[in-house]
Amino acid sequence: MTLDQLPIGQEAIITAVGGQGELRCRFLDMGIIPKTRVRMQKVAPMGDPMEIRLRGYELTIRREDAAKITIVPEKEGGAR
Question: What is the pTM assigned to this prediction?
Fold first, then answer.
C-alpha cells in the first residue's frame, strides 16, 4: 500500500521511500524515512495536496509524491 491510499485519520509505518535523485533526498530531508509512523490528517477538496503528520509536525505533500512512499497500515485500536 502507498501513502496516497491511507484513509484520513489512519496511521501507518513507512516501509520504503521511492523516488529518484533530488526527490528521494527531499523526502529523507523532511523526515520521511523507513520505520517512521505517519498519520493522514486531511486531504484537499480536489484530492491534492494531502496533509500528513509525522515526527511531531504536519507536512503537506502532493498525491503524486505520496504514491512513491510504501507503508504498512496500523490496526485500529493498536498500541501507540
Answer: 0.82
Percentage of the chain lying above the pLDDT 90 cut: 66
d(C-alpha 50, C-alpha 73), whole Å: 17
Quote the CA–CA distance of 13 and 58 in Å, as a whole number.
Answer: 16
Q: Is the peptide bond before 49 cis (omega within 30 degrees of 0)?
A: yes
Enumerate residues 6+ apart whose C-beta is below 8 A from 37: 11, 12, 13, 14, 54, 74
Cell reading at 4: 496516497
User: Which stretches of 1-80 are assigned E, i.e. beta strand?
Assistant: 11-17, 37-43, 50-54, 57-61, 69-73
* Residues whose CB falls within 8 Å of the CB of residue 36, separated by 6 or more in sequence, listed in order: 13, 14, 54, 55
The answer for residues whose C-beta is within 8 angstroms of residue 14's C-beta and 6 or more apart is 3, 32, 33, 34, 35, 36, 37, 38, 69, 70, 71
